[in-house]
């Protein structure tokens, strides 16, 4: 039987060293991956804008191709016409949705006091029919409390109007960037793709 030199590792010690090195390498790799992901996370808004611009260009490409092939127009004019048609269509949809929402909100605000009185009358009828007075449950008071809470929540929402306006402006700025980038992507599609 031969003896191992004084500084050499035995088989068991070599296995433990190998396990330690593998686990340490895996841990180091995960830390490196976390740092890369957090670095790329700083570019998430830019990556999202580029992706949405590409997606819009991809969706508008068949319309531009149709106009380019059917009409005797240069490609640039076909792209502008396609985007103008899409913006006009989007404007009509937004106008229709906005006018519908405005009409519904107006109707609800004018009819709400009468509806609230009807609800209170029904709740009072239910309370007397079910004999809830002995349980100390006042359904009308519960309804009025719910109304007050909705008022408080609506007030809080209106208090946040400045934050909502800022976020809306940021979104509109991103939308303009997406439109411009997708226009360039469609105009120079042959060189990009």
Verbal overview:
The structure is a single chain. With 193 residues, the protein is mainly alpha-helical. 86% of the residues lie in helices and 0% in strands. It contains six helices and no strands. The protein has helices at 11-41, 44-70, 75-130, 139-159, 161-187, 189-192. Helix 2 (44-70) packs across helix 3 (75-130), helix 2 packs across helix 5 (161-187) and helix 3 (75-130) packs antiparallel against helix 4 (139-159). It is flat and about 100 Å long.
Topology as H/E string? Answer: HHHHHH
- Based on DSSP secondary structure assignment, what is the total number of beta strands? 0
Instruction: Report on the biggest sheet.
Output: none
Structural class: mainly alpha
Number of helices: 6
| Strand fraction | under 5%
Shape: flat
Average pLDDT: 85
Helical content, roughly? over 70%
Give the low-pLDDT segments: none
Terminal residue distance? 70 Å
Radius of gyration: 33 Å
Gist?
The protein is mainly alpha-helical and 193 residues long. The chain has helices spanning 11-41, 44-70, 75-130, 139-159, 161-187, 189-192.
Describe how the helices and strands are arranged.
Blueprint (H helix, E strand, L loop, with lengths): L10 H31 L2 H27 L4 H56 L8 H21 L1 H27 L1 H4 L1
Helix pairs in contact: 2-3, 2-5, 3-4
Features:
single chain; 86% helix; 6 helices; 193 residues; mainly alpha
